[in-house]
Design goal:
The complex is a heterodimer. Chain A is mainly alpha-helical. Chain A contains 19 helices and 6 strands. The chains are: A mainly alpha, B alpha+beta.
Amino acid sequence: MAATVAPVRIRTGRAAELWLFLLSLVLGIGAYALVGLNTAEQLPGDFVRFAAVLVGMAVVLHLVVRWRAKYADPLLLPLVMALNGIGLAMIYRIDIGLVARGQEAGFGPRQQLWTLLGVAAACLVIVLLRDHRLLRRYTFTAMVAGIVLLLLPMVPGLGANINGAQLWIRVAGMSFQPAEIAKILLAIFFAGYLVSTRDVLTLAGPKFLGLQLPRLRDLGPLVVAWAGAILVLVVERDLGTSLMFFGLFVAVVYVATERFSWILIGLIMFAVGAGVAIWAFPHVADRFDIWLNALDPDVYNRLYGGSGQIVRGLFGLALGGLLGTGWGEGFPQLVPYANSDFIVASLGEELGLTGLMAILMVYLVLAQRGMRMAIGVRDGFGKLLASGLAFTLAFQCFIVVGGVTRLIPLTGLTMPFMAAGGSSLVANWIIVGLLVRISDSSRRPADDARGLVSTETALEIIGGAEPAGSQPADTAQPDPARDWDEDTAQTEVHRPPASNHQVAHYGEDEAGNGDEPTQVVRDE
Amino acid sequence: MSDLIVTVMKVGYLALLWLLVLTAIGVLRRDVFGTRVLAHGSVVRKSRPDGGPRPSRRAARGGPTRLRVTAGPLNGTTLALGSSAILIGRAPGSTLVLDDDYSSNRHARLFFHDGRWWLEDLGSRNGTYLGSAQVTDPVPVETGVPIRLGQTVLELQR
């Protein structure tokens, strides 16, 4: 069957983004208003300021994207804005509940401040980082910085122990969780490291039961990542963070190699690690006990480490039912940490199953956009980075929602963009900034070279290595080559006419990195 | 506030939340890039979103008017030739997006110069062949000569 194909007119998606921004603002501001109306019969005192700040942030984000990332994905920023707005409303709502119970509150204003910082950070990333491939230069710098940040809370005098986890640092009265930033740095490191080593990991090694096993010595990095995760677990006593990093590593290895054996090996190693942890550390064993015997009265009434929190969260979800109690009409404040670790239960109580499902759908769409841009982007580093970042987002949701709903043992991770906590919010906004940058180059049509990094920079990134087999045959055919600039100006660079071919081929190698690993040369 | 208003607001809010989700999914559905099939069995001229010059009259002088896939996963597909270059590869931004494991993301390029079409290999992994010769430098392409990239064979047709 013959068919005629034509290139589709590429939509930048900015109009769709504007419309979605409008919806997300109505959701965020509307929730804030409803909380005030339902609890006190009047709009919250700072309602106008809140609305203005939210609208202002959306306008700034939209303009920055139009200015610096014209082809960026239209869904990312509005959806994140909606999640953040709903999160702010829920935190404010729980503040009201806590004040009514005579407890310390004031999380709302602090979270608004962090939101401003987060949006500013995302804008900075979009404006300053012109091409995500530049990050590949800092592969090993990112590793060192990431590990230092991970270990920072262990420094005496700087680290702070909150609820038994040594995860925070305290500087000038503010506590910060450096692991959140370390997450981004390690994603950059994994992507940069694996894009150059994936061929070895993919091809070498024996076959066993249909599984392509890696060679023993190639297991080195996996063992290091595993040991690091265990170290975090032991020293910082935080199950969630350790699970996060190990999961991120296994996911990026899988994306890089397409070898299922890596997932299997990762799962087995994690099972072993978790088994040892349960046996060796009482606080991990407690988590399992709470998970399995949550409704046991002894476990429920235990003073420390009991299942009270998780069971009250479940009661809240049950009260919410299908449609929820409505903003401000439930009792989410009865659950400890209702505005951070248990914000999912609070939302489930007031918005019901219907609302919680919608929120989870938003996360799903966000993760899908990340994976989609990983497919579309032309360089291997961008693919791995985008899929790694999208995976962390999705995995974090899974761990949090799974923990709150008792599908898996409860671990202390934050729900991205919603939970009260500044470090997580800022880090996740930076992730969104990176994704916007990657999606811009993923969706940019090949003939729109504006904003692309120059070939010299690309050369510098790949270390000037000469691709095998593409030795240019000088200027034997100078005439057609002159057309290059007019037709497909893929790289915006003024080059001497004599080296036309050479530059073109080098530029190509960077793009060639995007070839899937399946695409090894098969002789026909 | 009365219970009725509270309930209406509650349900309205949920509806709005789902409107956001559904709008997002709608945008996502439209967001499929690459090439699109215009018509089966007939040749439709390539659209020119950039408003560039119309294809010159060379078609009338006996030059090729279309590029046709004669073997491989996209067999039967034709692409009308204009005056702008055609990028062939698996990258979604290519003019002709190949669905072929043996081709590179940006595999080869066809461009019009000095009254004829030239084929240039863009450093592909498995090479580009014109007839039986591997293409290293840009070479002129005659009508009807098979161009092979990976498992795909193309040719220029009148």
